[in-house]
Specification:
Elements (H helix, E strand, L loop, with lengths): L1 H19 L5 E8 L6 H14 L3 E8 L1 H13 L6 E2 L3 H9 L12 H4 L4 H5 L2 E2 L2 E2 L15 H6 L11 H14 L1
C-alpha cells in the first residue's frame, strides 16, 4: 500500500513538473462563426487569458462566414485536419452530430460543470443521448419582418420562413420584387 501511495505521489510530482517546465508550444485551432469584427476584442481577450493560464498553448482563431462553415468543417474532418474547438449553433451541431462529425463531450465535462447550465440549454446540444457540445453563449433566434413588405413581394405573412434556407429565399424574393 505504501509503495503504491509513493508511486502515485511520485507520478503526481513528475506530471506537475512536466506541466510547469517549458516545452514545445501546443497549437490549438479555434473556429467561430461570423464573430468578427463585433466580438474580436472579446475573443482575443478570451484567447489571451487561456494562453496565460496554459503557457504551452497557442490558439489560432479562424472566423468563418456562416455559409461556408458546413463545407469547410466537413472537409477538414474528412482531411484529418479538423479544428480542436469549433463554435457551432444548435442547428449545425445537430446536423454535424447526425453526420458523425463531432465527438461526444459527455465524459469530458464533469457533472458539476454541466449542472451550471439550465437543463434545456445543455439538452439542446444532445443528439441520440450524447452531448455534442458545451454551451458557450445562448442567443434566441428571432425573426421580425414587415408584413406589408411581405405582401408586396407576394409572400404570405401568416407563414414566415421557418428555416435559414427559407429566410434567405424570402430575402431574395423581397429584393427582386420590391
Amino acid at each position: 500500500m505504501r509503495r503504491r501511495l509513493a508511486a502515485v505521489a511520485a507520478l503526481g510530482l513528475l506530471l506537475g513538473a512536466a506541466r510547469a517546465s517549458p516545452g514545445p508550444r501546443v497549437p490549438l485551432e479555434f473556429w467561430t462563426i461570423a464573430l468578427q469584427p463585433l466580438l474580436t476584442a472579446y475573443v482575443q481577450d478570451m484567447i489571451g487569458r487561456y494562453e496565460r493560464a496554459h503557457p504551452g498553448a497557442r490558439v489560432r482563431w479562424i472566423d468563418l462566414q456562416f455559409q461556408s462553415l458546413d463545407q469547410k468543417l466537413l472537409s477538414a474532418i474528412a482531411g484529418g485536419v479538423a479544428p480542436d474547438v469549433v463554435n457551432l449553433n444548435t442547428e449545425i451541431t445537430v446536423r454535424m452530430a447526425q453526420a458523425h462529425a463531432l465527438v461526444d463531450m459527455e465524459a469530458a465535462v464533469p457533472a458539476a460543470a454541466r449542472a451550471r447550465y439550465f437543463p434545456n440549454i445543455w439538452a439542446s446540444l444532445r443528439v441520440g443521448g450524447r452531448a455534442y457540445g458545451i454551451p458557450w453563449y445562448v442567443e434566441p433566434d428571432v425573426l421580425a419582418f414587415n408584413r406589408t413588405l411581405f405582401r408586396r413581394a407576394g409572400l404570405d405573412p401568416a407563414h414566415p420562413p421557418a428555416t435559414m434556407d427559407a429566410f434567405i429565399q424570402a430575402a431574395v424574393t423581397i429584393k427582386q420584387r420590391t
